[in-house]
Amino acid sequence: MSGQCLLTGEVSKIVVRTRGLLYPLGTVSSGAIVSGQTLKIGTRKSAMALAQTEGIARMLRAADAALDVEIVKFETRGDQDQTSKLLRHGGKGGAFVAEIREAMRAGQLQAAMHSLKDVPGNEETPGLILAALLPRDPANDALVLRPGVSLDEFRASKGKGFKIGTNAVRRAAYLRRLFPEATVIHFRGAADTRVAKLDHGDKQRLPGGGEVGPADALVMARSGLERIGMASRIVHDFSVHEMLPAVGQGIVAVECVENDWLTRARLAKIEDASSRLCAEAEREVLWVLNGHCNSPIAGHATLSGNEMTLTASVLDEAGGGFIEVLRQGPADRPCELGRAVGLELLDKGAAAIIERTRPDEH
To answer: Is residue 50 helix, strand or coil?
Structure first.
């Protein structure tokens, strides 16, 4: 996949070449949870979440034709509240993951679908495990414009006079660096809902009252737009050099109860070893930094033969402070590489930026 620099028009390559290491499984014991021939998998009700979960179901059925996969839909707190910032619900983990995990622990589900970028990297999840990571889709972010606005117009203005909508603090921080004269506004909703709001000129209600917008542009994950059939709306692909992706962006994860060995064995059949390696490196950075849901932290790993390259950054939300680290290391030691990158970021002052954005818990 190639990406063109939005400001210069320069073309750069975004290449992910992969190899992998098989994810180890335990063996079924007499005390293991026993599943039948039906595997219930929980997911959010959004178009993107359903598309991702249906993809998992197809893969599982292809691996085991006798398996009946049932999709169970949830409306999470983050889906119900389309106004507040996700911080109010405990970040992405509390907003989009909590209810589904509770149902899984209660035995109502055998598995749960997550976008890996929405799974907090600084928390323990006792009794649960990410048992399968699917092949990574494009990890980069993309620009979507409202009808009537051209890319040439946006590029010529360098964003001046434009309102760009996003709910991600990472994207907001990068946008303020790339387009300091643009106005970055809070913009919530499922992917298809956000595009509809952009097209209709709808304003976004603010958590404290009032409204912002309407938006002239949105920045969204390319993979998400592809999954809901809206990739044609993309006018520009940000290269990972322009806007480093969120940790785990583009990877779909399937979680299950840790000692449900039968479900783990089934999920192992759809595991992508390369995604596992890259995810372990990226998420180790989050763990070392103790990043929270309001931290503008980015991280992206790629594989080439036996070597892994990992880039990670920490930005302040205003887009001023910026620290980036790039390191290479053996592909079969991803956590070690992630730890080294995280520690180097701390050495360069990342902790101070993260603390400035940490929510007040009192």
So the answer is: helix
